[in-house]
Fold this sequence. Notes:
Layout: E1 2-6, H1 11-19, E2 26-31, E3 41-42, H2 48-58, E4 60-65, H3 72-75, H4 79-99, E5 103-109, H5 133-148, E6 151-157, E7 160-161, H6 168-178, E8 181-185, E9 189-190, E10 193-194, H7 195-207, E11 216-219, E12 226-227, H8 228-238, E13 245-249, H9 269-275, H10 282-297
Parallel strand pairs: 1-2, 1-4, 2-3, 4-5, 5-6, 6-11, 7-10, 8-13
Antiparallel strand pairs: 9-12
Amino acid sequence: MNILVTGANGQLGNEMRIVSRNSSDKYIFTDVMDIEGVQTTHLDITDIEAIRTIVKDNDVKCIINCAAYTNVDKAESDEAFCRVLNAKAPENLAVVMAEVDGLLVHVSTDYVFGADPYNVPCKEDQKGTPTGVYGKTKLEGEQAIIASGCKYIILRTAWLYSEFGKNFVKTMLNLTATKPQLKVVFDQVGTPTYALDLANVIYDIVNGRKYEGNTGIYHYSNEGVCSWFDFTKMIAMLSSHNDCDIQPCHSDEFPSPVIRPSYSVFDKTKVKNTFGVKVPYWLDSLKTCLKNMNELNQ
């Protein structure tokens, strides 16, 4: 099967490059941005005719959509473009997959929740209540995919990080190494997710053709629960950044144009039972990521 990956030069896209290296399927890695030394086919997913052309020319039967507008704060002042990338572009991909009876694997977010108070892990059928433009447009993208009639797997994830691109782990590694003191919010709770773990789940579902008869929405993050404060403390400890005094603080000490979910823990029962997924504990995955970062930097 020929599989097209969008956003191939981002966090998850780069991990998909790694996990698919030995696949018998043919992977076509696409992005609008080029990285020197990394083979990438240019594709603008806001252009449905460009998608149709590359799908036809390469007989693509599966698209893994790793592309998205993810700047949560900036989205509030850039709503039109955010909606194009997070809602219209996934719709384009879904429409084209429906035309060729193909599969769309789409990555969504915990930000589709947040407005209604809750303190138990979110299940897939929980009503979406996004609090900002980013979450709203991601929910619109999900709805457009479902309405398209294509075969789809929507994987919602949370607190994604990796060795690649910009992310919370890299930011905190830098800050805890250079700042004498740091304040980090403790009243937002969730689960960090290593992008390599998510990529492995996607690969397993597609490579094993496990999606047949199992299309729908699924939740995936690593196991466990922590706050951003706890996450930062572990990043610093595992990296021996012991000179930074890390203190907990409330979210309102860092004014933001958007209210973030205060509790975004996922119930992963469905993805485990359906696909036989074994989910690593977040701390174990953080250790693996830091080790992989060190190896890349050597």
